[in-house]
Design a protein that fits this description.
By secondary structure, the protein is an alpha/beta fold. It has a single domain, classed as 4-Layer Sandwich (Purple Acid Phosphatase, chain A, domain 2). The chain is built from ten helices and twelve strands. Helix 3 crosses helix 4 and helix 4 packs across helix 6. The radius of gyration is 19 Å and the shape is globular. The chain starts with a strand and ends with a strand.
Length: 265
């Protein structure tokens, strides 16, 4: 059931704000972090919303950090691939995908990855807690290429870095405010924080991003942060952009049940 809430974006201004191309509808999902349960519920909500909305060319964009911390990263990746076979779903690379892929290169990087949610990711591919705890770092480094096939890693490595849509740009972490969009570094797009978050002036386009957790969606005018910390808060957010309007869909864990909320523009 889709419950409607008050707007978090304020009243619609008299002057049109930033917009996406006419005839398009974008569903932008924040950091999933292995929460397949919230993700499945949000997929259902998006499909229901899209079916009930006026006809448009709709596109889903995941803002990265599909993996780590939550219990089922492998399931999130598999469900994303399945969803892509049914509709247009594009995926941006996050810093946790970056760590995941680099952990196959050196044991020291694997050690860092395991401390930041990688343990849950590796176990989601079928390794038991007992098996995990029995391995040394070197044994784990030798084993994970057998556990997680190259085809899976190639798929994750194919994730995009940036998507532009009208007056908006979609990235995982943010952008370097001092650089034009065509000169951004991958490291900033996936990892930047303070230099981007502290910037108060206008940017080349309005940036929709994840990476930094907020209690609620944060619309600063020049950027919109939609990472609501699904892995620990139980709240996964999708921002819906159409024309010059903004609204949201959220799935929220309430006890043992997941509720779906619609937040109007």
């Amino acid at each position: 059931m889709l419950t409607k809430l008050r707007s978090l974006f304020g009243s619609k201004p008299d002057v049109p704000g930033p917009s996406v191309p006419a005839g398009k509808r974008y569903y932008l999902l924040g950091d999933i972090h292995g929460r397949l349960d919230l993700y499945e519920a949000l997929i259902d909500a998006i499909e229901q919303d899209d079916a009930q909305s006026p006809p448009a060319q709709s596109e889903v964009i995941l803002l990265g950090d599909l993996v780590d911390r939550g219990p089922d990263s492998a399931g999130v990746i598999a469900r994303t691939r399945q969803w892509q076979s049914q509709r247009s779903v594009r995926v941006l690379a996050g810093n946790h995908e970056d760590m995941f892929l680099q952990s196959f290169e050196k044991p020291d990087i694997l050690r860092h990855f395991l401390k930041h949610g990688g343990r849950e990711t590796i176990m989601s591919y079928g390794l038991t807690k007992k098996q995990f705890n029995a391995m040394t770092l070197e044994e784990m480094f030798a084993f994970i290429p057998q556990l997680i096939p190259q085809s899976e890693r190639d798929y994750i490595d194919s994730f995009e870095e940036m998507i532009v849509a009208g007056d908006y740009v979609f990235v995982h972490a943010g952008i370097d405010p001092a650089m034009p969009l065509d000169r951004q570094k991958r490291s900033d797009l996936l990892w930047i924080r303070d230099r981007f978050l502290d910037h108060k002036g206008p940017l080349q386009k309005v940036v929709v991003h994840g990476h930094t957790i907020f209690d609620e969606v944060l619309d600063c005018g020049n950027r919109i942060g939609i990472d609501t910390g699904a892995f620990r808060s139980g709240v996964l957010t999708a921002l819906v952009l159409e024309g010059d309007t903004k609204r949201m869909l959220q799935t929220r864990m309430d006890g043992d049940e997941i509720g779906v909320l619609g937040i109007a523009a």
